[in-house]
Amino acid sequence: MDVKDVLQFTDSLFFSETGKHIDRLQETILKGTWEGQKYSEIAEEEHCTEGHVRNVASELWQIISNALDIEVNKSNFRRILQKSYLSINSSHFTKEFINVSNVNFCNSNIHDSEVMNNRSPTSLQDTQQTPKQPHIDLSDAPKIFTFYDRTTSLTTLKQWILHENTRLLAIHGIVGIGKTALAAQLVEQIKHEFDFIIWRSLATSPPLRILQTSIIQSFRRGGAPVPAPNADGVPAPEEGAIAGGLSLLDYLQKYRCLLILDDVQMVNSSGQLAGNYQLGYEDYGTLFRQVGELSHNSCLVLLGSEKPREIAALEGKNQPIRSLQLNGLGAEAGEILREKGLAEHEKWSELIEQYRGNPLWLKIVATVIQDLFNGSLSDFLSDDTLFLGDLEYLLHPPFNRLSESEKQVMSWLASETAPVSISKMPENVQLSRSQFLKVMQSLGRRSFVEKIPEGDRTFFSLAPVLKEYVKTNYSRPKIEKEARSPF
Question: Which partner from 152, 297, 321, 466 sits 20 to 30 angstroms from 246, CA to CA?
């Protein structure tokens, strides 16, 4: 099987699922993958970003997976394709067409490219119907191997989505807290309540136009109708809410959909307060507002380390816009320590409290306890300095997103030995009162500060891990020098 066979075979698979032929970039991805190239090499060859290549490739693998009824990805593409191709060509049937996983292929090994290009997708469009079973596209969702008890959170989310018709929902929390795992478990428990379930990651900061096109293509693969031709018989464009075609909002209104967007903070700007979009990404905010305000039975779930500004402005107890700040596990986190083989159960609660029940943080530190302290919690906890280790690398990205004024306030909070009130301005913070309050609100939306109510007052502090990180990475002189920059 040579490259020409690969392209012809995959083009047939692609056409059977989409009614279209592969384009130039998809062809380059297929050739490059077959020949062992990395995505970065393909991106350089096509003069585009590696993130864009990954997005297109993810869509391509999903389409081929649907056609062959088996999961296909970059690592197994060559093996799966050879096996499927040989299976077809070694068949003893002599029919004009042979069927593999509901896809018909001509017995001829080589298809004339001109004939292929002239094939009409009309028959495919004519057979599309509203899906009887939910169409589930989790191509961007990570594999979750272990889920720790979040019964209360799951119950709340199911109540909001299934019984209170929540249209826009944010699940936010600090890195490692388990937002993605919770959302994956939620999908598993409510998937039969929807016509379409689609999961997309914003980790590569795709422009909204690209994201909408990807989602709409998934709707089409799941049986949703292709936009009707216009008066001149020309098919309507596909990307976004453009002349004559169904927009993403149209699909959300026409069907009951569960749409999950992960890593939403990646379309926001670094170095600014939480909720400020990157230049050219402001249309995400418009989409979120429209999803929350328009009437429909779908739900858009936003996962991220920052609470979106639109959610903060529109949410309410009697509103179809909600948010859930995910906090750490309690005693349930003991299961993590049990899996890591830590003894001294009576000391588990102290470790869990220090690391705020954060599943990923606890996994990292439990590994260190095994590696360096032979599993002895007593020896580890006797050290006066809170250990960070690999947690530093985990915290670098979210801290690098902070504005200089946020770093200044974080440094002040880290220097305090007890929770503080914000009723008075700290003397060594060089901000106006208004700026200071904006910064505190922003840090709250990033889940960086802990709120401690006492009577009718609220006090603020940092979790021990964050306090240690700030002391280690942001010295007071450096912060005060940077604070002189304009806010």
Answer: 321
- 205: region left, alpha or beta (phi > 0 left; psi from -120 to 50 alpha): left
Q: What string of DSSP letters covers 89-100?
A: HT----SSEEEE
Give me the amino acid identity at 352.
I
Question: What is the 8-class DSSP label of residue 140?
Answer: T
Which residues does 245 contact at the CB level (< 8 Å), separation at least 6?
A: 227, 236, 237, 238
Question: Token pair for residue 435?
Answer: 């700026």
Q: Is the pLDDT of residue 272 over 60?
A: yes
Backbone φ, ψ for residue 263 (5° rounding) = 55, 45
CA distance 57 to 33: 10
**Which carries the bigger pLDDT value, residue 244 or residue 147?**
147
User: Which one, of 293, 311, 309, 316, lies nearest residue 301 by Cα?
Assistant: 311
> What ranges in 145-282 are assigned the alpha helix state H?
151-158, 179-190, 208-221, 248-254
Question: What is the DSSP secondary structure assignment for residue 192, as one 8-state letter?
Answer: G
Indicate the pTM of the whole model.
Answer: 0.68
